[in-house]
Amino acid sequence: MIPQNNLIPGSYTEFDKSAALQGDPAKPHRVLLVGGVPAASSGAKLEVTRIGSEGEALATWGPSVLSSVAWGFFRVNRRVRVDAIALPEPSAGTAATATITASGTATAAGLIVVRLNNVAIEVGAELGDDADALHAAISAAIDEAASKRPYELPLSADVTSDPGEVTITAGQKGALGNSHTLSIEGSIEGLTFGVTAFSGGLGNEDSGDAVAALGDVQYDTIVLGLPEDSWAPWHALMVERWGPMVQKDGMLFAAASGTHGALTTLGDGLNWQYLVLLGSGKSPTPPWVWAAQAAAGDTKNPDTPRPRFGMTLPDCAPPAEGSEFTAEERQLLLEVGVSTYRVTPGGQSIVERLITTYTLDEATGTPDPVYRNLSTMRNLAYLRWSWNALLERKYSDANVADDGVRVAPGKKVITPSVIRGEAVSWFQRMEFDGRVEDFDAFKSLFEVWRDANDVERMNVISPPDLINELVTFATTVAFRL
Fold first, then answer.
1. Cα–Cα distance for residue pair 178/198, rounded to 1 Å
2. What does each C-alpha distance from 222 to 137, 218, 245 come to in angstroms?
3. Coil, helix or strand for 279?
4. How many beta carbons lie within 10 A of that of residue 130, not counting itself?
5. Which residues in the chain are classed under CATH 3.90.1160?
6. 378-408 in b/e burial notation, b at 16+ Cβ within 10 A?
7. Are the CB atoms for 313 and 283 separated by under 8 Å?
């Protein structure tokens, strides 16, 4: 500022940028990827680390669920700030395992495909190869594939001789390892193959220290590559951060595999308005990849009020034909707050609808659709941010007075009428941006007044009518003959 007591002759000119910015700035978006890593990983644990690619994640933590989450996310969106935090595997847990058992002797050359987390691994046999030879070949082929595709296959294979079988072990301890998938396709004459699914993974990553490590940084999107028993501290964090005294809101993304009954039970027990839970069903792709790609697709769309229908999930394989959820089953999933996908005729998984797990009013237990849509939560977050940004940009160092005060030009003094004018202009910009509707109602219902008990406080009741998703076209064809 040019001081009033300046005594040195001259012409002094200053710049004021307060009126230079037209409209509202774009809201910055920051993503946090969360996942477990093996105890042997040399990368930092329980520390926020910025990463710019899946390669950085792999170089930092090695093959792990966290690196797999990063791979899934960056496959869809590379144009957003991404941080990651590694949780150590549960020290008292156990790693999930699966087995392949061959028996017999090949009576002709042949080929099978071991499908592991939807990665197709070919294993061939020559005439006369016995079970032991196949076990060795399968184990070697899996380890080779894991070395070439570490993001998709954070695991290892070993041959045991008593009993003779291939044991495939998840790369880290914990219950989430039970979500790895295994199957065998094809056959070899003279040989039979038995498969046991991944099981025995025990223990859950402790999210408490990771939540504490975030400090005061706002994350608009947090991807949880964690088992469901590790989600609660993250939702508690969001409950706090959405509050008016913190205002560092964000959304959690997670996914779960399993039967329709298991997924409806899971969704029914949550009712969390800050969590998007995608039910991957019997997909051979692990659920943490589903969560990562759904979150990446959401963050890639800058138009936050828009519904997230039809987003492609490029690396999320659908279940075997005939095992997809029916329309009736997907309706039931949506009713309990589980987001759904559908499969295109070409076999591509695409988002059908992304919703939160919020379905009931906590106080009354009655159905409540208010916080159902992810777009509603994203829109609310933007409206609050843009309103606060406007006030802080223009009036952070202002004085407050009642309407009718007479002050010299250039004095930064706000009155209820000044705030009303700002609100009307702000709403019109939000309306033009496709975020709100019904200007007349907003203008008539908007209230602003100076607090009677605190002369330094201005109170506002802002009643924006949020724009809605188009979910249903209902048409009756009243035809004539």
1. 5
2. 40, 10, 21
3. strand
4. 16
5. 97-199
6. bbbbbbebbbeebbeebbeeeebbeeeeeee
7. no
Question: Domain 97-199 belongs to what topology?
Answer: Baseplate Structural Protein Gp11; Chain: A, domain 3 (3.90.1160)
Question: In the structure encoding, which two tokens stand for residue 164, read together?
Answer: 């003779």
- List the chain pLDDT tens, one digit each, 481 residues: 788 899 999 999 999 887 787 778 888 999 999 999 999 999 999 999 999 999 999 999 999 999 999 999 999 999 999 999 999 999 999 999 999 999 999 999 999 999 999 999 999 999 999 999 999 999 999 999 999 999 999 999 999 877 799 999 999 999 999 999 999 999 999 999 999 999 999 999 999 999 999 999 999 999 999 999 999 999 999 999 999 999 999 999 999 999 999 999 999 999 999 999 999 999 999 999 999 999 999 999 888 899 999 999 999 999 999 999 999 999 999 999 999 999 999 999 999 999 999 999 999 999 999 999 999 999 999 999 999 999 998 998 999 999 999 999 888 999 999 999 999 999 999 999 999 999 999 999 999 999 999 999 999 999 999 999 999 999 999 999 9
Q: Residue holding tokens 């156990």? A: 94
Tell me the C-alpha distance between 193 and 204, whole Å.
32
- What are phi and psi for residue 157, nearest 5 degrees? -130, 145
Any idea what DSSP says for residue 319? Answer: P
22 class by beta-carbon count within 10 Å (0-12 exposed, 13-18 middle, 19+ buried): exposed
The two structure tokens encoding residue 412: 């930064």
The C-alpha R_g of the chain, in whole angstroms, comes to: 28
Q: Are 81 and 182 in contact (CB under 8 A)?
A: no
CA pair distance 359, 273, nearest whole angstrom:
8
